[in-house]
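so my prof wants the structure for this chain in the C-alpha cells format not the other one, which i didnt know existed until like an hour ago. anyway here's the sequence
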Amino acid sequence: MNETYTNEPYDVVVVGGGAAGLSAALVLGRARHRTLVVDAGEPRNAPSSHMQGYLSRDGMAPAEFLALGREEIARYGVELVRDRVTEVTKDGEGFTVVLDAGPAVRARRLVVATGLKDEMPDVPGVAERFGRDVLHCPFCHGWEVRDEPFGVLASSAMSVHQALMVSQWSKDVTFFLHRVAEEELSDLDLRRLAAAGVAVVPGEVAELVVEDDRLTGVRLADGTTHARSVLFAGPRPVPQTSLLEALGAEMNETPFGAYPVVDPTGLTTVPGVWAAGNAIGFAEQVVHAASGGYRAAAAIVGDLLMTGLDAAVNG
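here's what i got, hopefully its the right format
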C-alpha cells in the first residue's frame, strides 16, 4: 500500500476496492496508466465466508479474493490507499478527489465502484445471522444448503420470486408472509407457489430461534414456531451513489434504488466518469462486477489515448 501522493494528477482514480474497482485497476495498471485505488474497506460480501459461481474461484473466501487482487495490481505499480472519498469536483478537464484522511488528489478520469449496502428486515436475529444461515441469493449459497428446510421471509416485491427460485434447491420451503396479507398475492402467485410445493404461512415473524449458534426455527408473533435451518430474506439495497449524484450524473429510479444511467462500458452521463459493480445495479455478482470493471478500464484506456492523439493533431 502506497500512501505517498504528488501534485501530478493520476490518469485514473478508482473509488472502491472491491471486485469492480480492483479489476479496473488491474487493466489500467497493465496499460501503464498511473492509477490510484481509494478503498474504505467495507465490501458488501464481508459477512459471507465464501463466494460461488466465479469460474476458478468457486468457494474462495471474499477476503482472500480481495487480498489476491491487491497483490496483483501492486505488480503493475497501481497505488492503493485505505481511505474514503468525501467529495469529487470537476477541475478543468479532470477532477479533484477529496479524501477523508489524506490529501486531495487530481485525476484525469474516474471509476466509481462504491457498491451498495444491504439494509436487512427489522426482525430480531436476521441481521446478526446474515451471511451464515440467513441468506439472500440461492445462486450464491443454494448448493451449500441444498435439501435443508428453507424459510423465505416476505420483505420486498421480489419475495414471491425468491420463494419460487429457492425451491430449485430444496423441496421443503415455507414462505412466511410476515407483514404481507395473503390477499396481496395474486392468483398466479398462489398457484405458482402451490405448484412449486411452497407452503404459505400468514402471520408476522417475531424472531429467529437460534440454538448452539445455529438457526433452528422461525417464531411467529402468535408464539408458533416453524422448524427451519435456513432463512432466505431480501435486504433492501441502498446504492452508495452520492458522489455520482453530486457530479450531476443522470440517475435511473428503480424499485431497488436509484442507479446511474450508463452506456455498455459503464460511462455515465458525466464525461470522464465511469461506474461499475453494484454502483450500477443491485444484482451485480462478483463475476459481473469484475467484468464491468474490466470493460470500464478498457474504455478509459482508449479514451485517454484518443484524447492525447487529438490534442497532438490539433496542436
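also thought this was worth mentioning. The first strand starts at residue 10 and ends at 15.
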